[in-house]
Fold:
Amino acid sequence: MDHAATTPVDAKVLEAMIPFFNAVYGNASSIHSFGQDAKEALDSSREKCAKLINADFEEIVFTSGGTESDNLAIKGVVRKGNHIITSKIEHHAVLHTCEFLEKHGFEVTYLPVDKYGFVNPRDVEKAIKKNTVMVSIMHANNEIGTIEPIAEIGNICRDKDVLFHTDAVQSFGKIPIDVKKMNIDMLSASAHKLYGPKGVGLLYVRKGVRLTPQIHGGGHEFGLRSSTENVPGIVGFAKAVELAKKNMNRWAEHEKRLSKMLVKGVLKIPDSWLNGHPEKRLPGNTNFCFKHIEGESMVIHLSMKGVAASTGSACSSKSLKPSHVLTSIGLSSKDAHGSLRLTLGKDNTKKEVGYVLKELPSIVENLRRISPLTR
Ligand code: PLP
Structure:
């Protein structure tokens, strides 16, 4: 139940990838037939990924993952003296990139969010200045699942002639995205969040956006990201996209049903609540707080029972700082430490949810009994 951290590679995805490790192993830049076979697979994968979000073939740049896509989008557009607008609840791939740029003389505005984690589009509008070059607001938050009003933000940015980037790593393939209708100029996605392999992602770059590459070399990916393409990974990504497109509604309904059951059961535990918005969230995302205990101990106890969960973001779960997302929605750092994220996937079952609902109350009760925070 930690699908927001990563997902297993779907059997059909693995099957699609395997020939590209050995049978069709050519370098997609080679002109001989071995290379051209790989190039064909690369092209059709690019087309499939583009179609999912109503983009065009040449607007998809394959990368090594969401983190690289975020770095390329943000560092790629800024020029000396520029101002960037983002939110306080972005993933570290965006926040740390912005902090790095601040150290190098760029100006960054970190917008606050409300108690559900929503960015107010009016705040975006008010923050835009003469030297603002881009706005980067995530589509769906990785911790609390909140779905941001990105179409409204996209409209404002287009009106004001400011580039709009969205980190859609958690939403890509899970909820509908139309880059044209939503006025998105750049969008980051990652294969391993949607039953694809790790180490492959993409950046959608609208035609006409001028981007400076961050990795220089042989000029692959339309000159925006050099390095021999990871053909097996990209083929796997495209297969995952194909499956996500075909099953989007069915998987979302399944995850919603399970999440509802989970929320209803978990909230029977005294002194607990759900973080984020009750409806406007990713279908499989739940994020709870339990008073007087530490999220880490819940995660360890659940792990001993065979359940994968997380507290805050998995990428930063080694850090002792409370989640920046939870403190940004107004939680005290003490309460934020008692958070538990359970994120459901397409293959989770009612039985598994039932198992968590059976085990969790006694874990919480036992931890509270020995917790120094209750005294
Ligand atoms: N952005 C968001 C919202 C994420 O959830 C993640 C991963 O957790 C990333 C970016 C980083 O993606 P990757 O692991 O592919 O680098």
Notes: Residues 313-317 have pLDDT under 50 and may be disordered.
